[in-house]
Amino acid sequence: FAGAPMPVLTLFIVNKAGSLIYHKNFSLQARKINANQCLYMASVFHGLYLNASSLSPFKNPETAPPMGIKKMMMASFRLECLRTLTGLKFFVTADPDADYLESLLNEIYVIYTDYVLKDPFYVVEMPIRLESFDQKILSHISEASARGDMKSPHR
Amino acid sequence: ICDWQGRMRSVIERPLSRGNQKVSLSALAYMFSELIQHCQSQIDKGEDLEKRLLECGYSVGLRVLELLSYREKGCKKEKGVIQVLNFVRTTVWKTLFGRQADDLQISNAKKNEYYIYDKSPVTCKYVSAPNSSRGAAYTAGIINGILDGADFPCEVKAVLSKDTRMVFVISFSQKVIDRESRQQ
User: Which of A52, A143, B99, B138 would you call most buried, defined as having the most Cβ atoms within 10 angstroms of its Cβ?
Assistant: First the structure.
């Protein structure tokens, strides 16, 4: 299926401290960046996220998570981010017309809680090097795209 | 639950209730994950995590044998190796995991080795390779406890087979093999 067009480009997971713990390219169109640059870009995004929440005109009550970047629309792609109550950030880049990303991010969060948090040998907030998580994410995204749930008019 | 004199029967005279048969998979996964982490924090240099989990499963196995012999079999004792292994494969697996184990085979090479296959054991569902056979060490301990309790001393090991099935390798002691050959 590596040759099939995938509407989702890349998935990044950033921990509470702002360091990258997981990243995966799904599409051949995704730009190939080396590992160090990936780490750097993830921390830049984390910084931008914090900036956005401090620039926001609404002050959140202390208990709610800070509101930060949810969606970024660029000319050639779009980026959507999900911040969990525990401070983890899942963000995914995709086609500019992809509007199913919010539910996709929620499903990825569920897969994370299943295959990462229930693994007794995984230390929380550390880089994720788990084969079953990898496989499950890949199969979920390819199933969703095969089902036609992720339609992109440019393909 | 009152006897002919109208008194309430004491707790030990009431029938054993079956209880709620189903448990949430997430709850089990978290509890099991915590068990593994606890065992890992307790072992010192020489010891093995698998050995610890085997011991934990062993005590469960002894109790499971008692309970299921009473509930399912009416306290009948199994005499043959194949019968007791079938009991493990069907009744025990069904009670513990909700389905039967996939296969039971005897080894071609060694006369005292038997294999029980399971495509996806519940304890290993969320544990990634290469650690998945360590999750199955607990289930291997349960099998070990059941077989030892039923007077078939053996050693049980969990191995991941080439076609990604979990195999429980059961090696019976010489005493069991001699007894089998005398019976036949």
Answer: B138
Q: Say whether A120 and B40 touch across the interface (CB within 8 A).
A: yes
pLDDT digits (tens, 9 = 90+) for A107-150: 999 999 988 888 888 888 899 988 889 999 999 988 887 776 66
How far, in Å, CA of A103 to CA of B135, rounded? 32
Whether the complex's predicted ipTM is more than 0.85 is answered with no
- The pTM score is 0.81
State which residues of chain B have pLDDT below 70: 1-9, 15-20, 45-46, 73, 129
Terminal Cα-to-Cα distance of chain B (whole angstroms): 48
Cis, bond preceding B15 (omega within 30 deg of 0)? no
User: Can you read off the two tokens belonging to residue A10?
Assistant: 């890349």
Which residues of B are less than 8 Å from A123 in CB distance? Answer: none
Quick one: which of B180, B173, B178 has its CA closest to B153? B173
Contacts of A131 (CB under 8 A, 6+ apart): B128, B129
Query: Per the CB < 8 Å rule, is B40 touching A133?
Result: no
Closest Cα to residue B115, out of B173, B160, B72? B160
